[in-house]
Amino acid sequence: MEKKDKVSMAAIRRLPKYYRYLKDLIDKDVEKISSKELGNIMGFTASQIRQDLNNFGGFGQQGYGYNVRELHGEVGKILGLYKNYEVVIIGAGNLGQALSNYTNFEKTGFNCKAMFDVNPRLIGMAIRDIVVYDFDDIEDYLENNDVDIAFVCTNKESAQDVASKIANTGKISAIWNFAPTDIVTPEGIVVENVHLIDSLLTVTYRIKD
Ligand code: NAI
User: Could you tell me if residue 194 is inside a domain?
Assistant: First the structure.
């Protein structure tokens, strides 16, 4: 599998959908699938499917289609799912607690090790076995524990400061930010902003009349 030099971010953003649909097909014991059939269930054209997968070397065989299990494995590898990722959650309020309760993260390879908050009423609490620590101790924690990704679930006003503090330790690779503000980090640290309201506003746009 060879990745072409310049794969568009739009193509990369479609890959998790391939990964999800291929897993569903595995669960239904489907062994092989053509680009046309896969396109039909995913809402893409067959040529879009072929074009997307060709970006990464192409995995199908003329006249056979794709081996579902193999393709799922390859897409997983492209997405970096050949290893587990260690995660911490910053902000142990409603959303932070909900994320720490979501067991599908573990199933996909994301291990949540700890949560951090500034609220004394939350510090010391545990959700499943994930303990909430004082955010004042975050630098020590990152110094002594391998963490790949921080989920930022604080209020909007704190999010940038929180992100800067953890990014400046140089100990994490990425921030998954849920606060409704676009945070900025030093180069080399990946930030993915998840703005649920943005998605909801596309719903109102489509139903407005
Ligand atoms: P929340 O108010 O329940 O929780 C925020 C937590 O962040 C609090 O426990 C607070 O003590 C903590 N916090 C504040 N400053 C901090 C700091 N410097 N270091 C560590 N922790 C700090 O809010 P909620 O509902 O959990 O939302 C969290 C964020 O996610 C907000 O920015 C919200 O807009 C956003 N969001 C929430 C959704 C939801 O369904 N609750 C959905 C989408 C986004």
Answer: yes
